[in-house]
Amino acid sequence: MTRKLRVGVNLLWLVPGVVGGSERYAVALLSELVGRDDVEISAYALPSFAVSYPELAAAAHTVVAPLPPGRHVVRRVLIENSWLPRQLREQRVDVAHHLGGLLPRCPVPAVVTLHDLQYLAYPEYFSAPKRRYLQLSQGRSLRRAAAVAAISDFTRDDAIRAFDLDPAKVVVIPPVVTPMRIPDDAAQVRADLVLMGDYLLYPAAAYPHKNHETLLRAFASIAKGRDIRLVLTGATGAGAWGSAHSTLPRINALCNELGIVGRVGMLGYLADFQLAALYDGAVALAFPSRFEGFGLPVAEAMSVGCPVIAANTTALPALVGDGGVLVDPDDVDGWARELARVIDDRVVREKLADAGRARFAELAAADTVDRLVDVYRKAVA
Fold it and tell me: Which end of the chain has fewer CB atoms surrounding its CB within 10 Å, N or C?
């Protein structure tokens, strides 16, 4: 029998409740890896990860970095380039998987997960120091890696084009998608969140590229005369490490300006069971993001038959396929029209729900983790 491959997973970039969709990607992937009998996982993480995911942290043999709670960017980078390499050597790791898009000093073959290259498409969303840091480090990281795991064809093509990478070393490893588990007491969960009646759902961190403004303006134009609310969930957007600052103040101001304060609920970052209950009860998912490396909430919504309306840009058209409706992310009138159609027509909702379930079945059939383990073995070889 082939011995287990020792894999060290670098999660030191993962600040729970702050980093957005990449957190869900990492948690889902790690949950699958720890259940396999051909790999032995050791995770290296911040103290807050062990607190937020105690069972997963235990299953992944998590080693907590010597950092206090909170975000300590410079110290975290130093830890990645000193403490982490020592850990990888001492534990005789065969291959390291860096899930944060960058490769620190690493004494073993390395795989780097790349979520997106948003800073190249929207440099204005990043501070000058952060842009410079990524410009100096990202291409170098990806070229040094034994393999690059891009989360979509869109991200793969972006990376190859931007950094002139060897296409053979850039492999598409999409997120692990499993059906959202709707809690038996979903209605009560929604009630506990003070959610009664019909609502549209947008789960997204409060960052500029998530484009809440288009959705708010479209919603305001169709809300009058309809008994409908808009529910926003997701991380507040922290402006961490030179990324764009949170758009939450602008969202609040715009709700006031449009006169929809009482029609928009902002619930923050939710647990999986709460989010599943929201998908289950929503009239539709509205997802107007201007830039996505994948778009995990779209897949989550389709898994439970929540009708999907999404932006027709970046990775989203390939993800949605025939499973939803696509709209230009900045077309307020187009969004208003599609929102009104799905709210007013039950037949439209049922057709979109069926189409979404069928598309999710195609996504779920991907052998994501098997392909990743094969990437690990090739990296070692």
Answer: N
Q: Look up residue 208 and give its DSSP letter.
A: G
Q: Are 198 and 176 in contact, with CB atoms under 8 Å apart?
A: no
Residue 262 belongs to domain spanning: 186-364
Q: Give the Cα separation of 177 and 62 in Å (integer).
A: 23
Q: Are 119 and 134 in contact (CB under 8 A)?
A: yes
For residue 84, which phi and psi values (nearest 5 degrees)? -65, -50
Among 132, 121, 148, CA closest to 289:
121
Residue 244 reports pLDDT greater than 70 = no
Residues 348 and 373 in one domain: no
pLDDT digits (tens, 9 = 90+) for 314-350: 999 999 999 999 999 999 999 999 999 999 999 999 9
What pLDDT was estimated at residue 243?
65
Q: How confident is the model over 60-82, as a mean pLDDT?
A: 84
State the total domains in the chain: 2
For residues 177-196, give the mean pLDDT.
Answer: 92
The number of angstroms, rounded, from the C-alpha of 56 to the middle of its chain's C-alpha atoms is 18
Query: Could you tell me if 147 and 289 lie in one domain?
Result: no
Average pLDDT rounded to a whole number, residues 281-302: 96
Determine the Cα–Cα distance for residues 43 and 378; give it in Å rounded to an integer.
21
Q: What is the CATH number of the domain that holds 77?
A: 3.40.50.2000
Residues 134 and 201 in one domain: no
Angle at 16 between CA 196 and CA 53, to 5 degrees: 90
* Region of residue 311 (left: phi > 0; alpha: psi -120 to 50; beta: else): beta
d(CA 202, CA 32): 27
pLDDT at 245: 75
Separation of CA 37 from chain center: 27
Whether residues 79 and 204 share a domain: the answer is no
Each residue of 188-204: pLDDT tens digit? 999 999 888 999 999 99
If you write DSSP's letter for every residue of 52-63 in order, what string do you get? H-HHHHHHTT-E
Neighbouring C-alpha atoms within 13 Å toward the C-beta of 215: 28
In this structure, the answer to whether residues 267 and 211 fall within a common structural domain is: yes
Residue 168 CB coordination number (10 Å): 7
163 and 194 housed in the same domain = no
- The pTM of this model reads 0.90
